[in-house]
Each structure stands twice: as structure tokens, then as C-alpha cells.
Amino acid sequence: MERLYKKIEENGFVCVGLDTSLDYIPEKMKKNKSVSEQLFDFNKEIIDNTKDVCAIYKVQIAYYESYGIEGMLAYKNTLKYLRDNDLLSIADVKRSDIAQSASQYAKAHFSGDFEADFMTLNPYMGMDSISPYLEFIKNKDKGVFVLLRTSNPGANDFECLRLKDDSELFYTIGDKLKELNDKLIDNSGYGPIGLVVGATHKEEVEKIRQRYKNMFFLIPGFGAQKADSLNVYKLLNSLNGGVVNSSRAILKNYLNYDDGEDKIGDYAREKCIETRKEIQSNGIL
């Protein structure tokens, strides 16, 4: 998390989501290539043109799993390319399991072919679905982002259920994670256990940021889901303490321009800078 904090200080808080689909890769980029090469070459074009204007890359595994072995080869090669270029990565896998199964997920995504710097986790099986990752967090300099308050419309179905003390379920989960994180604070002032906090719930963002001061946020909802930039600004902490994910809005920005197919990376870069500026502008209102 300390590396991520420093990267944000240098490059800003944008997280580029590599939700890469063959549907929006230009035909001329696909010619005479395998599926894995098509996906990886598109990702490489995005990475090469955005690596100095973003903090981290989030690789959503579902997009690669959907293409079978070829897709997972592209997933592997993308993560390796990020490591080789000293860039940070989040494996967006949302794992949720306990005991040895969780340990194997940790091993799978914190080492070997699919090694990433961070993983996303689903906490709804309990704290014993989080604890198996602590070995890698403490000994291998890894981090996790755990689902707290997600940006999707159905989030209220479970996350906001009222408990006997009239608190909402997601705050109870957050408090337990905070207790664990507080024992692991580093020089950045944050710990390695972060939270996924969507920017689509404007009435809650300030309270969540205040309650979890020493926790990094992975913030979805800006971009294609059109969350208000002010909500995003309030979830950050002096423009740090979190990363703002944007996937399709960045990857597909080239489609908005007549010469886009020749400048995929340029227009992705432009969208990263535009996203950063739009959110930063809330600080001078």
C-alpha cells in the first residue's frame, strides 16, 4: 500500500480497468493473431500510453476467463508485463472461501503465473475468508481490497440490512476489517487491507471516509456508471488514500473519434488525464 500511495503522489489516483473484450478491439488489430495475442496487444497499447498518468491497473479476470485458455494466457501475460515495467496491479477476482481453499486462492493470485500486487475479496463468508491472505500481506508485501459498499443498484439488497443494534451490515463488516488493518499501518499512514467503496451513494461517502481514515479505497462507479465526481472527491483523502477505477470509459474512448483506431493509446491517455482533472476540480469549487 505504501508503494501505491507514492505512485498516486507521482501519477494521480486513476486506476485503469483492463476489462478487455474482443468486441471493442479493432479488426485490423486482430489480423493474423491468436485470441491471447489480440487481448494482450490491446492491453499493451493501453498500458504503454497511460503508465505515467495512472496509479495502478485493475485486471478483471472474468473478461479473460470467458475466452478460456487463450484468455487466461492473455491475463498471465498482462500481469507479467505490468510486473516487468514496475507497475502495480489489482487482480479483480472477488474471491470468497475459507481455510485451505482461500489459501490456494491466495497462492494462485499472489504468486506464480497470475501474480498481482492486490486482490479483491468478498467477505460474506466471514473473517475466516480474509485471514488466509494475511501470510502474503505480511510476508510478501501484498494487499487486498474487500467489498464494502458496492456501486451496483442491487447493493442495497444485503449490504444495507439493519442489524439488531440498528447499524447497517456493511458498517459491521468495515469495522471488523478496520480492526485488522489498524495493526498493520505502514509509513503512508494506511494499512494493506483496503475497501471497495462505490461512488454512487452520495449520502454515505463522507461518513465512510471519516469512519475508515486509515484504509485505502478502491472506488468504482465513475465513468460508465456515471457517479458524481464530487462523491469521488469526498472518498479520497487529499487526493490520495484511494484509487478511482475507470474501465470502459478509458478503453473505448478511441471509438468517439474518427481517427480513433490509429490512436487507441493516445485517447486512453487523454481520458485518464480528463478523469483526474474532473475529480480534482472539486477541490477548488
Automatic annotation (TrEMBL):
Please name the pathway.
Pyrimidine metabolism; UMP biosynthesis via de novo pathway; UMP from orotate: step 2/2
Q: Which reaction does it catalyse?
A: orotidine 5'-phosphate + H(+) = UMP + CO2
Could you tell me the EC number(s) of this protein? 4.1.1.23
The answer to keyword Iron-sulfur applying to this record is no
- Keywords from the UniProt entry: Decarboxylase, Lyase, Pyrimidine biosynthesis
A Pfam family found in this protein is OMPdecase
- The Orotidine 5'-phosphate decarboxylase domain sits at 13-263
GO-annotated molecular function? orotidine-5'-phosphate decarboxylase activity
Top-level taxon? Bacteria
Q: What class of enzyme is it?
A: lyase
Q: Which residues form the active site?
A: 94
Name the Gene Ontology biological process terms. 'de novo' pyrimidine nucleobase biosynthetic process; 'de novo' UMP biosynthetic process
Name the HAMAP family for this protein.
OMPdecase_type2
Protein name, as recorded = Orotidine 5'-phosphate decarboxylase
Species assigned in the record: Anaerococcus vaginalis ATCC 51170
